[in-house]
Amino acid sequence: MTEYQEDQYLDCKGLSCPLPILKTKKIMDTMNTGELLKMVSTDPGAINDMQAFTRRTGHELLESISEGGDYIFFVRKT
Fold first, then answer.
1. What is the pTM of this model?
2. What whole-number percentage of the chain has pLDDT above 90?
3. Using alpha carbons only, what angle is made at residue 57 by residues 56 and 60, rounded to the nearest 5 degrees?
4. Positions marked catalytic
5. Taking the CB of residue 31, how many other CB atoms lie within 10 A of it?
6. Are the CB atoms for 41 and 13 separated by under 8 Å?
7. How many domains is the chain built from?
8. What sign for the dihedral angle of Cα 50, 52, 55, 57?
9. What is the CATH number of the domain that holds 40?
10. So what's the pLDDT on residue 1?
């Protein structure tokens, strides 16, 4: 795992689809270009959802990690 210095942290643990992506979109809309978001979810569906979200929006999914039941995503705003 690469070490990242996130600008924003979003805890979506316990939330199920589509809430993690909706909350991610809402916070990304407030961020500046180039800033980094760390989003943590417990919903396994977030893996496919985040890939689709970043493809659709053009934001850069730097890394996604599965760790002890958590799904951790690092997304750079473009």
1. 0.94
2. 95
3. 105
4. 17
5. 16
6. yes
7. 1
8. negative
9. 3.30.110.40
10. 62
Residue 3 covered by a domain: no
Q: Are strands 8-12 and 70-76 parallel, antiparallel or unpaired?
A: unpaired
Q: Would you state the pLDDT for residue 2? A: 76
Tokens of 24: 């991610």
| pLDDT reported for residue 53 | 97
Establish if 52 belongs to a structural domain. yes
User: 48: Cβ–Cβ under 8 A, 6 or more apart, which residues?
Assistant: none
**DSSP conformational letter for 66:** E
Asked if residue 60 has pLDDT above 70, the reply is yes
Domain that holds residue 52: 8-76
Using DSSP's 3-state secondary structure scheme, residue 24 falls into helix
Q: How far apart are CA 53 and CA 68, in angstroms?
A: 24
Angle at 32 between CA 2 and CA 34, to 5 degrees: 35
